[in-house]
Design a protein that fits this description.
The complex is a heterodimer of chains A (867) and B (114). Chain A folds into 5 domains: 71 residues, no CATH class; 202 residues, no CATH class; 178 residues, no CATH class; 175 residues, no CATH class; 185 residues, no CATH class. Chain A contains 28 helices and 24 strands. With 867 residues, chain A is α+β, with helices and mostly antiparallel strands. In chain A, the strands form 3 sheets. In chain A, strands 15, 16, 17, 18, 19, 20, 21 and 22 form an 8-stranded mixed β-sheet that branches. A 6-stranded mixed barrel of chain A has the order 4-5-10-7-9-8. Chain A has a 4-stranded antiparallel β-sheet with strand order 14-23-13-24. Helices cover 53% and strands 15% of the residues of chain A. With 114 residues, chain B is α+β, with helices and mostly antiparallel strands. Helix content of chain B is 64%, strand content 14%. Chain B contains 5 helices and 3 strands; from the N terminus they run H-E-H-H-E-E-H-H. In chain B, a hairpin with a 5-residue loop joins strand 2 and strand 3. The longest helix of chain B is centred in the last third of the chain and has 25 residues. The radius of gyration of chain B is 16 Å and the shape is globular. The chains are: A alpha+beta (867), B alpha+beta (114). At the A-B interface, helix 1, helix 2 and helix 4 of A face helix 2, helix 3 and strand 3 of B.
Chain lengths: 867, 114
């Protein structure tokens, strides 16, 4: 405790300096007076008495200094002095300070921005109690790795057999038509089994959860509201409990309100209703979440899932695998790699900005060589000078960091709007305390990174030589080495920005390839919509079919519409598949043929411009009473009837169907992945899964949206209109995150090149100013300006080429981390590497050219007279 | 910060505390003189080094100070021992005795020979 008290006293000693100083002077004066009195008594002359007393005290000033050091905290006071001095020095060189601060602000700002995304998505805990023990359980089918759902039958098995879980629940996220009062609105809803809320650990803030009997089949009369819905539609009043809302034309009683901001399953979810899982044949797939038992591990869950999957596979027509992973890693999913790549990229950018500032500092310190030499001559130790220089760097980087945080703050707003759907659930992306601390840490580390080497260099020279050397140490021994250091720094900048540029180009070329990949579909002038028919009103397939037919004929008749067609599942939104037999062939179990299944109206192929290769497409007569027919794509023909005519062949779905035509293959779901065989059936002959429509318009498809909205409302106001958008919009959405990533990486690469150009220009102009005499001499002897420019550029070329080669090699090594993000471009894609090399060379030459030209214009008379 | 050794600082503090215990409240000059006299003039104290030591002790709470008037009517800052200082003195004196006893045994030639 003694030391704590002493330190408290010393901290206090930092303040009230004047009073303490006076008191010390008084005390020492009194000491001397007492001593002089004694000496006088001993018989000395007054002068001698005073002299002896002073000698004995050991010098009043030294004593005072020792006393001061004990009184306060010297290094802290020194730090403050250094900071003040540094601030003055920076203030005196506004150009340098501005460039350095901007450079650092860019590097730190970009790093902070990307870190804030990473923090929001990967480090901040999910908004559920003890969220680390939540498990996302999903099934895998060999065919479609994106399958995330588990069939309801499997869910029942899991519920009974997973012993490593404390609780488990299933849910779906359908849209529902909600009517409160007179207006009907389409809202995202969730249907949940009894285990979900318990598993997540969330409970209503008003009212109660569903009672066990309310989950029973055929009951479904209760509903939970989201906090937002409660606030917006019921003004947050408690009397909402017991009120009736109409969902899909059926009355439901409100029993509770869920907590504010609950983002399960999505932030937009407005309603929760009980989910009753069907069993047996029509068991549709559900999403499953579980919570680990205390002490159980993810590995344990996976082991149990493996056993269950093996057992289930025995009775299944296809192999079933089941997987469990932490809820977070499911939610972050594929974005982990993208985020890591971006984080790596900003890390490089930060390094480049540090190197750039180091470069500026070297130049600046060479101008201050005399100052450091003078300090050394006056007795400052190397450590003391180093500390002073580093304090200055720290000051610079803290100001830069502050600017960076401002930049990042501006960036979060923009980035928040651009984030793809899966990531935006982690929004709002905020600059909270951890992110700010990160920015501070990055600033401090940067200060050391860019400050240390130049400071050490500044201390290397011989103070005597520097003091004698006159202006800026132009002839000092250190200057050659210093130019060497600056060349190294520039080469490093070139190398790092080359790596970034290669990465940016690889992604950019991938994006171009992806955007131009042929889909086999008409993508321009296509409007898509989905009609949701409430099952309480449209009970039978015939009733639904009747409405679809009516809507289709009205759509086709709209002015500005070239053609319209039914397509159960809209392009680039989802998929459905069929397992089928082929007449006359036998396939071993689990190896039955499969194809993506499309339920379409006859006009589909014309509307989507899918070419007919053989036979015919559907006709109006291919209806419920007609002979069952199918159209297949070229891929299916190639897979099952190679070198044969598939027309007339029969395949078995629920009944035998005759193939009547072959059409072109389409990339209907995802630009990046080529799907397998595709099978089309008339929507009149197989009850469609959903009600999608595609419309080929003459004018821009957007202009028809209001008309279509009015049309659907006029046919039946209870029918909800969903996914009204153009196919182009939808395709753009599927690649939005890739586009964003490419944009960001491109931006970072551009900034990196800019910083590098600044560095190169700086080094060249310094080199030129040092060689003014030489250049003047050459000009005087008849050298043409072009030759002078060539001379200057040649000096720089070696440095740039060295950095470029190192950078290309580094990019080649690092590009394997990008490999899975590339499309149609090899990771050693020559065009990207050559393109980068050309770009870097052009930038470097442009940056050197400006100061070189100035050198060429040097007036020889002036240059030679210098010195 | 200087080249005073810890031992010197430590012993100086101990001597200050002991002086104050023996003589009661005293000013800096008096303490310095007393230490010099007690050491039989073998210890030549640079009076200046005393003041940082006094400040340190005061910061630690072992001594307290106030302005007063000396026997020959000079204004002077008087230091006195606090309760914590008394405890510290007792403890440090004990530690010192132990340390010197150990060292003495260590250094005595008879022990080494036997």
């Amino acid at each position: 405790m003694r030391w704590a008290r002493a330190w408290a006293a010393r901290v206090e000693g930092l303040f009230g300096r004047g009073r303490r100083e006076r008191e010390l002077t008084a005390e020492l004066e009194s000491h001397l007076a007492l001593h002089i009195d004694d000496n006088l008594r001993a018989g000395m002359t007054p002068e001698e008495a005073r002299r002896q007393a002073l000698i004995k005290l050991g010098g009043a000033e030294q004593t005072k200094q020792m006393y001061r050091e004990q009184r306060g905290i010297p290094w802290l006071e020194n730090l403050w002095l250094d900071a003040c001095y540094g601030a003055r020095m920076l203030h005196r060189a506004p150009g340098f300070t501005l460039v350095a601060v901007l450079t650092l602000a860019l590097g730190i700002g970009a790093t902070t921005l990307i870190f804030s995304v990473v923090y929001a998505a990967m480090l901040r805990s999910l908004p559920y109690p003890n969220a680390g023990s939540l498990v996302w359980i999903y099934g895998h089918e060999q065919r479609e790795p994106e399958t995330q759902r588990v069939s309801a039958t499997e869910f029942h098995v899991l519920q009974r057999n997973l012993t490593a879980l404390a609780s488990i629940g299933a849910f779906l996220n359908p849209g529902k038509a909600l009517r409160i009062g007179s207006e009907s609105e389409w809202v995202p809803a969730a249907t949940v089994t009894s285990g979900i809320f318990k598993t997540l650990g969330v409970h209503p803030v008003v009212g109660r959860e569903f009672l066990p009997e309310e989950y029973r089949k055929g009951r479904q009369q209760e509903v939970l509201l989201s906090y937002r819905l409660w606030q917006e539609r019921f003004d947050g009043k408690r009397d909402v409990l017991g009120r009736t809302v109409v969902v899909d034309l059926k009355p439901y009683t409100v029993v509770g309100v869920m907590p504010r901001g609950l983002d399960f399953p999505s932030r937009e979810t407005r309603l929760w209703m009980p989910l009753v899982l069907p069993t047996g044949q029509n068991a549709y797939p559900v999403y499953v979440i579980g919570r680990l038992k205390a002490g159980a591990s993810f590995a344990q869950v996976q082991a149990e899932l493996n056993v269950i999957a093996r057992r289930l596979s025995k009775n299944s027509s296809f192999p079933i695998t089941l997987h469990g992973e932490s809820l977070r890693s499911h939610l972050v999913g594929a974005f982990r790699l993208q985020m890591m790549v971006l984080l790596g990229a900003v890390g490089l950018l930060l390094l480049i900005s540090c190197v750039g500032v180091a470069n500026l500092l070297v130049a600046r310190l060479s101008g201050r060589e005399r100052e450091t030499a003078l300090r050394a001559a006056l007795g400052a130790t190397r450590a003391r000078v180093l500390r002073q220089l580093l304090t200055e760097s720290l000051l610079l980087s803290l100001v830069g960091g502050g600017g960076g945080v401002l930049l990042a703050f501006a960036g979060t707003g923009v980035l928040g709007r651009l984030l793809p759907e899966n990531l935006s659930r982690f929004a709002p992306i905020r600059l909270n305390m951890p992110v700010l601390l990160f920015a501070l840490g990055v600033s401090v580390i940067s200060a050391v990174l860019f400050g240390l080497a130049p400071a050490l260099f500044a201390l290397r020279g011989d103070p005597g030589a520097a003091l004698k050397g006159g202006q800026g140490g132009a002839v000092g021994t250190g200057s050659l080495a210093r130019n060497g250091l600056r060349s190294w720094l520039v080469a490093t900048e070139v190398a790092l920005s080359t790596v970034l540029a290669v990465g940016g180009l690889l992604l950019f070329r991938s994006l171009l390839r992806l955007e131009n990949v042929p889909t086999g579909l008409r993508t321009n002038h296509v409007l898509m919509l989905r009609a949701y028919l409430p099952s309480t009103k449209y009970k039978t397939p015939a009733e639904q079919r009747e409405f679809y037919g009516r809507l289709l004929s009205r759509l086709a008749a709209l002015p500005g519409v070239r053609s319209a067609a039914f397509d159960a599942i809209l392009p680039f939104t989802g998929w459905g598949y069929a397992v089928f037999d082929i007449k006359g062939r036998r396939y071993p179990r689990r190896q039955e043929p499969r194809a993506d299944l499309f339920q379409v109206s006859p006009g589909y192929f014309r509307t989507m411009r899918i070419p007919l290769l053989r036979g015919r497409t559907f006709r109006a007569s291919d209806n419920a009473s007609g002979r069952p027919v199918a159209v297949i794509d070229s891929e299916m023909a190639r897979a099952y009837w190679p070198n044969q005519n598939p027309i007339g062949q029969q395949i078995g779905l629920t009944k035998w169907i005759t193939i009547v035509g072959v059409v072109g293959h389409t990339r209907f779901l995802n630009l990046a992945k080529n799907p397998g065989p595709e099978l089309y059936v008339p929507y009149d002959q197989m009850h469609p899964w959903a009600g999608g429509f595609v419309v080929h318009t003459a004018a821009t498809p957007e202009s028809l949206m209001p008309t279509v909205r009015r049309l659907v409302a006029s046919l039946d106001p209870d029918v909800a209109l969903l996914d009204l958008m153009t196919l182009r919009q939808r395709i753009a959405e599927t690649i939005a995150s890739r586009r964003l990533q490419t944009l960001l990486l491109g931006l970072f690469a551009g900034l990196a090149l800019l910083l590098t150009a600044v560095g190169i220009a700086g080094v060249v102009s310094l080199a030129v100013s040092r060689r003014t005499r030489e250049i003047g001499l050459r000009t005087a002897l008849g050298a043409e300006p072009v030759e002078v420019i060539r001379l200057v550029l040649k000096g720089m070329l070696g440095v740039v080429a060295g950095g470029l080669i190192a950078g290309l090699a580094g990019a080649l090594a690092l590009s394997r981390f990008l490999e899975s993000l590339l499309f149609g471009v090899a990771r050693w894609d020559p065009a990207s590497f050559v393109g980068t090399a050309a770009l870097v060379l052009v930038v470097a030459m442009a940056a050197s050219y400006v100061p070189a030209r100035r050198a060429a214009r040097v007036d020889p008379v002036v240059a030679l007279r210098e010195e | 910060m200087g080249d005073k050794t810890d031992v010197w600082q430590g012993t100086l503090a101990l001597m200050v505390l002991k002086t104050l215990e023996t003589l009661g409240p005293l000013h800096g000059y008096g303490i310095a003189r007393r230490i010099e006299q007690t050491s039989g003039r073998r210890l030549v104290v640079n009076y200046g080094t005393l003041y940082p030591a006094l400040l340190k002790l005061e910061q630690e709470g072992a001594i307290a100070s106030e302005w007063g008037v000396s026997e020959n009517h000079r204004k002077a800052k008087f230091y006195r021992l606090t309760r914590a200082g008394r405890k510290q003195l007792a403890k440090e004196a004990r530690d010192w005795e132990q340390a010197t006893a150990i060292l003495a045994r260590f250094l005595s030639p008879e022990e080494g020979a036997s």
